[in-house]
Design a protein that fits this description.
Layout: H1 12-45, E1 49-51, E2 57-59, H2 62-88, H3 98-101, E3 102-103, E4 106-107, H4 117-154, H5 161-188, H6 196-202, H7 204-236, H8 244-273, H9 283-301
Antiparallel strand pairs: 1-2, 3-4
Helix pairs in contact: 1-2, 1-9, 2-4, 4-5, 4-7, 5-7, 6-7, 7-8, 8-9
Protein backbone atom coordinates (compact mmCIF):
# COMPACT_ATOMS: atom_id res chain seq x y z
CA UNK A 1 0.00 0.00 0.00
CA UNK A 2 1.58 3.28 -1.09
CA UNK A 3 0.73 6.87 -1.88
CA UNK A 4 0.20 10.01 0.15
CA UNK A 5 -3.25 10.60 1.58
CA UNK A 6 -4.02 14.31 1.87
CA UNK A 7 -7.47 15.85 2.20
CA UNK A 8 -6.40 19.45 2.78
CA UNK A 9 -5.63 20.16 -0.88
CA UNK A 10 -8.96 18.89 -2.20
CA UNK A 11 -11.90 21.00 -3.30
CA UNK A 12 -14.08 22.53 -0.61
CA UNK A 13 -17.08 20.63 -2.01
CA UNK A 14 -15.22 17.34 -1.62
CA UNK A 15 -14.21 18.22 1.93
CA UNK A 16 -17.86 18.99 2.68
CA UNK A 17 -18.94 15.59 1.37
CA UNK A 18 -16.16 13.98 3.43
CA UNK A 19 -17.47 15.80 6.52
CA UNK A 20 -20.97 14.55 5.73
CA UNK A 21 -19.65 10.99 5.55
CA UNK A 22 -18.06 11.43 8.99
CA UNK A 23 -21.31 12.77 10.44
CA UNK A 24 -23.29 9.94 8.87
CA UNK A 25 -20.90 7.30 10.23
CA UNK A 26 -21.02 8.98 13.66
CA UNK A 27 -24.82 9.00 13.62
CA UNK A 28 -24.87 5.33 12.66
CA UNK A 29 -22.39 4.48 15.42
CA UNK A 30 -24.42 6.43 17.99
CA UNK A 31 -27.62 4.61 17.03
CA UNK A 32 -25.76 1.29 17.11
CA UNK A 33 -24.50 1.96 20.64
CA UNK A 34 -27.97 3.03 21.79
CA UNK A 35 -29.54 -0.11 20.30
CA UNK A 36 -26.90 -2.51 21.66
CA UNK A 37 -28.04 -2.39 25.31
CA UNK A 38 -31.71 -3.22 24.66
CA UNK A 39 -30.70 -5.84 22.09
CA UNK A 40 -28.43 -7.65 24.56
CA UNK A 41 -31.09 -7.40 27.27
CA UNK A 42 -33.77 -8.90 25.02
CA UNK A 43 -31.41 -11.64 23.86
CA UNK A 44 -30.75 -12.61 27.48
CA UNK A 45 -34.50 -12.83 28.08
CA UNK A 46 -34.81 -15.08 25.00
CA UNK A 47 -38.47 -14.36 24.55
CA UNK A 48 -40.42 -12.87 21.66
CA UNK A 49 -43.50 -12.44 23.85
CA UNK A 50 -44.45 -12.00 27.51
CA UNK A 51 -47.68 -11.98 29.52
CA UNK A 52 -49.24 -8.77 30.77
CA UNK A 53 -50.92 -8.50 34.19
CA UNK A 54 -54.12 -9.92 32.72
CA UNK A 55 -52.34 -12.91 31.18
CA UNK A 56 -52.62 -11.65 27.60
CA UNK A 57 -49.57 -12.17 25.35
CA UNK A 58 -47.51 -9.11 24.45
CA UNK A 59 -44.82 -9.00 21.78
CA UNK A 60 -41.40 -7.86 23.02
CA UNK A 61 -39.02 -5.66 21.04
CA UNK A 62 -36.63 -8.58 20.44
CA UNK A 63 -38.04 -9.23 16.97
CA UNK A 64 -37.45 -5.61 15.97
CA UNK A 65 -33.91 -5.51 17.36
CA UNK A 66 -32.98 -8.74 15.57
CA UNK A 67 -33.54 -6.82 12.34
CA UNK A 68 -32.49 -3.31 13.33
CA UNK A 69 -29.21 -4.04 15.13
CA UNK A 70 -27.56 -5.91 12.21
CA UNK A 71 -28.82 -3.16 9.91
CA UNK A 72 -27.21 -0.45 12.04
CA UNK A 73 -23.98 -2.45 12.20
CA UNK A 74 -23.84 -2.77 8.40
CA UNK A 75 -24.75 0.89 7.98
CA UNK A 76 -22.02 2.09 10.36
CA UNK A 77 -19.31 -0.11 8.86
CA UNK A 78 -20.36 0.93 5.36
CA UNK A 79 -19.88 4.63 6.07
CA UNK A 80 -16.62 4.04 7.91
CA UNK A 81 -15.41 2.30 4.74
CA UNK A 82 -16.65 5.25 2.70
CA UNK A 83 -14.53 7.59 4.85
CA UNK A 84 -11.51 5.38 4.13
CA UNK A 85 -12.35 5.46 0.41
CA UNK A 86 -12.60 9.27 0.54
CA UNK A 87 -9.10 9.43 2.01
CA UNK A 88 -7.64 6.83 -0.34
CA UNK A 89 -8.83 8.74 -3.40
CA UNK A 90 -6.67 11.71 -2.46
CA UNK A 91 -3.56 9.54 -2.98
CA UNK A 92 -3.71 9.84 -6.77
CA UNK A 93 -0.75 11.84 -8.18
CA UNK A 94 -3.16 13.47 -10.63
CA UNK A 95 -5.60 14.47 -7.90
CA UNK A 96 -9.18 13.33 -7.44
CA UNK A 97 -11.19 12.58 -10.55
CA UNK A 98 -14.08 14.82 -9.49
CA UNK A 99 -16.11 14.25 -12.64
CA UNK A 100 -15.90 10.48 -12.16
CA UNK A 101 -16.18 10.44 -8.39
CA UNK A 102 -18.83 13.03 -7.59
CA UNK A 103 -20.85 12.32 -10.71
CA UNK A 104 -24.51 12.23 -11.63
CA UNK A 105 -26.04 8.86 -11.00
CA UNK A 106 -24.01 8.15 -7.91
CA UNK A 107 -20.50 8.38 -6.52
CA UNK A 108 -18.03 6.26 -8.45
CA UNK A 109 -14.86 5.58 -6.45
CA UNK A 110 -11.78 5.76 -8.60
CA UNK A 111 -9.13 8.01 -10.02
CA UNK A 112 -6.37 8.07 -12.58
CA UNK A 113 -3.17 6.24 -11.58
CA UNK A 114 -4.18 5.97 -7.94
CA UNK A 115 -1.72 3.65 -6.14
CA UNK A 116 -4.58 2.61 -3.86
CA UNK A 117 -7.01 1.81 -6.69
CA UNK A 118 -7.17 -1.88 -5.76
CA UNK A 119 -8.04 -1.10 -2.15
CA UNK A 120 -10.65 1.46 -3.24
CA UNK A 121 -12.29 -1.06 -5.57
CA UNK A 122 -12.35 -3.77 -2.90
CA UNK A 123 -13.92 -1.42 -0.37
CA UNK A 124 -16.56 -0.34 -2.90
CA UNK A 125 -17.66 -3.96 -3.34
CA UNK A 126 -17.63 -4.45 0.45
CA UNK A 127 -19.91 -1.41 0.82
CA UNK A 128 -22.23 -2.79 -1.83
CA UNK A 129 -22.56 -6.08 0.06
CA UNK A 130 -23.21 -4.28 3.35
CA UNK A 131 -25.80 -2.10 1.63
CA UNK A 132 -27.69 -5.17 0.43
CA UNK A 133 -27.88 -6.56 3.97
CA UNK A 134 -28.90 -3.15 5.33
CA UNK A 135 -31.73 -2.71 2.82
CA UNK A 136 -33.03 -6.22 3.53
CA UNK A 137 -33.02 -6.19 7.33
CA UNK A 138 -34.28 -2.62 7.73
CA UNK A 139 -37.29 -3.52 5.59
CA UNK A 140 -37.90 -6.45 7.93
CA UNK A 141 -37.46 -4.24 10.99
CA UNK A 142 -40.09 -1.74 9.87
CA UNK A 143 -42.53 -4.53 9.07
CA UNK A 144 -42.08 -6.47 12.30
CA UNK A 145 -42.20 -3.36 14.50
CA UNK A 146 -45.51 -2.12 13.10
CA UNK A 147 -46.95 -5.66 13.23
CA UNK A 148 -45.96 -6.16 16.87
CA UNK A 149 -47.32 -2.77 17.95
CA UNK A 150 -50.59 -3.64 16.23
CA UNK A 151 -50.62 -7.03 17.96
CA UNK A 152 -50.08 -5.51 21.40
CA UNK A 153 -52.76 -2.91 20.80
CA UNK A 154 -55.46 -5.15 19.39
CA UNK A 155 -54.92 -8.32 21.45
CA UNK A 156 -54.80 -10.38 18.28
CA UNK A 157 -51.82 -12.19 16.86
CA UNK A 158 -49.81 -10.26 14.30
CA UNK A 159 -48.17 -10.64 11.89
CA UNK A 160 -50.47 -13.19 10.33
CA UNK A 161 -49.46 -15.96 7.94
CA UNK A 162 -50.17 -13.89 4.83
CA UNK A 163 -48.09 -11.01 6.16
CA UNK A 164 -45.23 -13.34 7.05
CA UNK A 165 -45.23 -14.94 3.60
CA UNK A 166 -45.45 -11.63 1.74
CA UNK A 167 -42.78 -9.81 3.73
CA UNK A 168 -40.46 -12.83 3.67
CA UNK A 169 -40.87 -12.82 -0.10
CA UNK A 170 -40.05 -9.13 -0.50
CA UNK A 171 -37.00 -9.42 1.76
CA UNK A 172 -35.80 -12.39 -0.28
CA UNK A 173 -36.41 -10.34 -3.42
CA UNK A 174 -34.24 -7.50 -2.12
CA UNK A 175 -31.50 -9.84 -0.96
CA UNK A 176 -31.66 -12.02 -4.08
CA UNK A 177 -31.50 -9.24 -6.66
CA UNK A 178 -28.92 -7.39 -4.58
CA UNK A 179 -26.62 -10.42 -4.41
CA UNK A 180 -27.21 -11.06 -8.12
CA UNK A 181 -26.07 -7.51 -8.86
CA UNK A 182 -23.06 -7.98 -6.60
CA UNK A 183 -22.11 -11.24 -8.34
CA UNK A 184 -22.55 -9.80 -11.82
CA UNK A 185 -20.42 -6.83 -10.84
CA UNK A 186 -17.61 -9.11 -9.66
CA UNK A 187 -17.79 -11.17 -12.84
CA UNK A 188 -17.95 -8.17 -15.17
CA UNK A 189 -15.14 -6.04 -13.79
CA UNK A 190 -12.15 -6.12 -16.15
CA UNK A 191 -9.55 -5.94 -13.36
CA UNK A 192 -9.25 -5.67 -9.60
CA UNK A 193 -8.91 -1.88 -9.71
CA UNK A 194 -12.43 -1.37 -11.10
CA UNK A 195 -14.97 -0.30 -8.49
CA UNK A 196 -18.56 -1.48 -8.28
CA UNK A 197 -19.87 1.92 -9.34
CA UNK A 198 -17.69 1.89 -12.44
CA UNK A 199 -18.99 -1.57 -13.38
CA UNK A 200 -22.60 -0.39 -13.01
CA UNK A 201 -21.93 2.48 -15.38
CA UNK A 202 -20.08 0.43 -18.00
CA UNK A 203 -21.67 -3.05 -17.97
CA UNK A 204 -25.24 -3.17 -19.26
CA UNK A 205 -26.14 -6.49 -17.60
CA UNK A 206 -25.00 -5.37 -14.16
CA UNK A 207 -26.70 -2.01 -14.60
CA UNK A 208 -30.01 -3.62 -15.58
CA UNK A 209 -30.10 -5.99 -12.58
CA UNK A 210 -28.92 -3.15 -10.32
CA UNK A 211 -31.85 -1.00 -11.41
CA UNK A 212 -34.26 -3.91 -10.86
CA UNK A 213 -32.80 -4.27 -7.36
CA UNK A 214 -33.35 -0.57 -6.69
CA UNK A 215 -36.91 -0.69 -8.04
CA UNK A 216 -37.66 -3.61 -5.69
CA UNK A 217 -36.34 -1.56 -2.76
CA UNK A 218 -38.73 1.24 -3.70
CA UNK A 219 -41.66 -1.17 -4.08
CA UNK A 220 -40.97 -2.87 -0.75
CA UNK A 221 -40.59 0.51 0.90
CA UNK A 222 -44.07 1.41 -0.30
CA UNK A 223 -45.39 -1.94 0.95
CA UNK A 224 -43.96 -1.73 4.47
CA UNK A 225 -44.93 1.94 4.91
CA UNK A 226 -48.46 1.07 3.84
CA UNK A 227 -48.56 -1.62 6.53
CA UNK A 228 -47.13 0.80 9.08
CA UNK A 229 -49.74 3.45 8.26
CA UNK A 230 -52.55 0.90 8.61
CA UNK A 231 -51.15 -0.14 11.98
CA UNK A 232 -50.89 3.50 13.06
CA UNK A 233 -54.52 4.17 12.14
CA UNK A 234 -55.72 1.16 14.12
CA UNK A 235 -53.53 1.94 17.13
CA UNK A 236 -54.57 5.60 17.09
CA UNK A 237 -58.26 4.77 17.44
CA UNK A 238 -57.79 4.04 21.15
CA UNK A 239 -56.91 7.28 22.91
CA UNK A 240 -55.63 5.53 26.04
CA UNK A 241 -53.43 3.12 24.10
CA UNK A 242 -49.87 3.32 25.54
CA UNK A 243 -48.43 2.47 22.10
CA UNK A 244 -49.91 5.58 20.47
CA UNK A 245 -46.94 7.93 21.06
CA UNK A 246 -44.41 5.31 19.94
CA UNK A 247 -46.29 4.54 16.75
CA UNK A 248 -46.90 8.24 16.11
CA UNK A 249 -43.18 9.05 16.31
CA UNK A 250 -42.38 6.07 14.13
CA UNK A 251 -44.93 7.10 11.51
CA UNK A 252 -44.01 10.79 11.51
CA UNK A 253 -40.23 10.26 11.34
CA UNK A 254 -39.45 6.94 9.65
CA UNK A 255 -42.08 6.83 6.92
CA UNK A 256 -41.32 10.29 5.44
CA UNK A 257 -37.62 9.36 5.38
CA UNK A 258 -38.45 6.21 3.43
CA UNK A 259 -40.47 8.26 0.96
CA UNK A 260 -37.57 10.69 0.53
CA UNK A 261 -35.23 7.76 0.00
CA UNK A 262 -37.56 6.27 -2.60
CA UNK A 263 -37.79 9.55 -4.52
CA UNK A 264 -34.02 9.84 -4.77
CA UNK A 265 -33.53 6.16 -5.58
CA UNK A 266 -35.83 6.68 -8.57
CA UNK A 267 -34.10 9.93 -9.51
CA UNK A 268 -30.68 8.34 -9.18
CA UNK A 269 -31.74 5.31 -11.22
CA UNK A 270 -32.94 7.55 -14.04
CA UNK A 271 -29.63 9.40 -14.04
CA UNK A 272 -27.68 6.13 -14.10
CA UNK A 273 -29.46 5.13 -17.29
CA UNK A 274 -29.44 8.54 -18.94
CA UNK A 275 -26.20 10.00 -17.56
CA UNK A 276 -24.91 10.74 -21.06
CA UNK A 277 -27.84 13.07 -21.70
CA UNK A 278 -26.90 15.25 -18.72
CA UNK A 279 -23.60 16.31 -20.28
CA UNK A 280 -25.23 19.43 -21.72
CA UNK A 281 -26.62 20.54 -18.37
CA UNK A 282 -25.17 23.67 -16.83
CA UNK A 283 -22.62 23.21 -14.07
CA UNK A 284 -25.01 24.70 -11.50
CA UNK A 285 -27.70 22.17 -12.48
CA UNK A 286 -25.25 19.28 -12.15
CA UNK A 287 -24.01 20.49 -8.77
CA UNK A 288 -27.55 21.02 -7.49
CA UNK A 289 -28.54 17.53 -8.58
CA UNK A 290 -25.43 16.02 -7.03
CA UNK A 291 -26.13 17.88 -3.78
CA UNK A 292 -29.69 16.56 -3.63
CA UNK A 293 -28.66 12.96 -4.32
CA UNK A 294 -25.75 12.93 -1.87
CA UNK A 295 -27.32 14.85 1.01
CA UNK A 296 -30.86 13.53 0.99
CA UNK A 297 -29.91 9.92 0.29
CA UNK A 298 -27.64 9.86 3.34
CA UNK A 299 -30.19 11.65 5.53
CA UNK A 300 -32.84 9.14 4.49
CA UNK A 301 -30.51 6.22 5.22
CA UNK A 302 -29.80 7.51 8.72
Amino acid sequence: MSGNVDLEDTRASYQAVFALDILTAAAGFFLLVVATGPTVQRLRERSLSVKDKYGSPLKTSLGTYLFVWPGLLCFTISYILLIVIDLYKTASPNGIDYDGDLALGGRRPGGANNPLAKEIASLSFARTFLGIIFATVITGGIWIYSAHVLSNSSNRSAPGLRSKLWNSYIMLAIGGTGLATFGLGLAARPNNTTSFGQVVHTDEGTRTVYLIYRVIIVATGISVTRSAIKAFVKVNRKKNNPDRPHMRRFTIIVIPLLWVRNVFIIYNAVLVYYAAETSEWSESSRLATLFLITIFTQIANV
